[in-house]
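Lab notebook: predicted structure, single chain.

Context: the supervisor wants predicted structures on file for every construct in the current expression panel, including those that have not yet been purified. This is the next one on the list. No modifications to the sequence; it matches the entry in the shared construct table.
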Amino acid sequence: MADFGQIRVLGRALSSAESSPLPAIGAPSRSPIEVRVLVVNTGGTIGMVPHSEGLAPEAKKLAGALSKIPILHDVAYATETKMYHRLGIGYDTLVLPLSKENKRIIYTVTELSPLLDSANMTPSDWGRIAQCLQENYQQHDGFVILHGTDTMAYTASALSFMCENLGKTIILTGSQVPIYELMNDGRANLLGSLLIAGQFVIPEVCLYFYHKLYRGNRVTKVDTESFNAFSSPNLPPLATAEVDIAINWEAVWRANTTKKFEVHTNMNSNVGLLRIFPGITTEAVRAFLQSPLEGVVLETYGSGNAPNNRPDLLAEIKAATDRDVLILNCTQCLRGSVSLIYATGKILIDVGVIPGGDMTPEAALAKLSYILGKPGLSLNEKRKMLSENLRGEMNVMLIGNRITLKDSKFIQGIAKFLSVSCKEELEAVRDALTPALACAAAKIGDVDALKALQSMGGNLSSGDYDGRTPLHVAACEGNLEVVHYLLECGATVYAKDRFGATPLMNAVKFRRLEVISLLRKTGAHFTSQELMNIGTELCRLAFNGDIEGLRAWHLSGVSLKQHGYDGKTPLYVAKTKGHVDVAAFVKSVS
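Prediction complete. Output recorded below exactly as produced.
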């Protein structure tokens, strides 16, 4: 249980912050920050047009149509800033009007070929989408995937597993009515997706529909005729977009890793769904479970029950698990979880069936396909992975006591002073204090204070009044232990402060070489627009003989062969100024 030791460590961090202000990067600027989002159009109703045989997707039409919709393209800004020439982009790139967060979201529309009705989507198409994300990952801050609604939950679930060590926002969306029709839901769904993907770092594969952002592997389609077509039965939305966009940061899943983003596209297609129903025959089950089937989602009654008075049926299931077929038990109910309270549920475990918790059938099928596609895993390792929460797809019962806000005397003391007591007000106190306290703790390298905040449910990726996260501050100060701890807690390397600086940029500016190496290992990188004038900066460092500055930029992944505004290279400048050691270094790494 938390005690007054929390007050001491957090108070020490805060007092340090008051006596020693955080360093700022660059001069303050009110200029809008430009962020880049890639829109991957796979097909689906949102971009369909009428044909003689019915609605069907049409290639190379969507971007042109969106450019004529003022809320989805600010023509004046694109023209006045010479956006197309300045960024070297084509007319499939559009820009939203200025957001409340003082950001300009520039988005490029790319298309899969051919475009697909989602009913025709296959695992190989999931692979093409994943490859597209990987190829464009470093050039964009977020991603929106336009997809048909019929199989969107399957694709969202599959991509959540295929995208490993994800650090950026990926959102699937679509519509029930084509965006070209007068009354449609496509414009609102696309706009909401772009605003969230461009302004917030939510490192998950999500699904956005009807003003709500869901975890992608938690949704299922529940309505064919309503704009409110999707539901997340066992997890509340990650965000709601109404008058303002409100993010439920406590619910956001984060990859606690220092590994780089990569995609796994080898999905095993020898999987299937088998729904138990009264009177199902042994012959039907036997036929379904035959080779080449390797994995099955068994949809059972209630809390995971199947008839225990059918030894013939159970014998077929056991024979399949004895052949190393992985069978995952999921409930047919929309809400709830598989449990072991009934004998009719426990009997399935006895024959080798794996409990699937509260996973949706879509998520369970995708998880099976993903794990079976992993090379070199033993049967026990596969079974273990199926029981684990890999991407937030299932709730796992926590063992032991978890510290809550009511256990925290620190928060309780402040709450008492402020005369607040309800859960919502306690959370508001915690969330208001966390950014300042966490940044202060990161500045002085106080890991204990960060652990105290983490134990109370504080979001260690939250930004202060300048948008600076604890990772920004730790990177500036070169507090390697803090950086490592924050990354293991899921802190994002892609967060930008209100000046557009990332933790990597902060580490480079302050020449924190060990921090740069760790951030790069985790996948931190600069986007092309961040490096537009980098050649001139490198030449300035070479002119001044600043070898450490050049070393920092090189370690961050920047080539030292860049040209300055006058066409000169850092090597040329160093030689001209007679900086022999600088010239030797630049030459050795070029």
